[in-house]
Specification:
The chain is an all-alpha fold and 103 residues long. It has 2 domains: 32 residues, no CATH class; 61 residues, no CATH class. It has 5 helices and no strands. Helix 1 packs antiparallel against helix 2. The longest helix is centred in the first third of the chain and has 12 residues.
């Protein structure tokens, strides 16, 4: 029985263990790099940004970089120019308005 076969059995019989089992499978078949979240340093991200390059965070449950972002903006003196919004729950029109204002 292959490792993938075992993963399928876990999916069928113990679905609550699938996320953990998937991580173990990926580590065995590929490497740990693919399951570890990247260590994000705002200074590194900032160097890659430009006027036409927005910063968009795609988050998983429980992740909230807002405090890190706000602290960094304060340090750089950009807090007045920062308009963080969370898309969803009717925030689309507000985002569109901010984008149009920035243009």
């Amino acid at each position: 029985m292959t490792t993938f076969d075992k993963l399928l059995l876990i999916k069928v019989f113990r679905n609550e263990l699938i996320q953990q089992s998937m991580a173990v499978y990926i580590i065995q078949e590929m490497e740990k790099f693919y399951v570890e979240p990247p260590s994000v340093q705002m200074e590194t991200i900032y160097q890659d940004l430009a006027v036409y390059t927005p910063l968009i965070f795609v988050l998983s449950a429980g992740a909230d970089p807002t405090s890190v972002l706000m602290k960094f903006a304060q340090e750089k003196g950009f807090i007045e120019k920062l308009f963080p919004i969370s898309l969803g729950q009717g925030m689309g029109p507000r985002a569109e308005k901010l984008i149009k204002h920035a243009q």
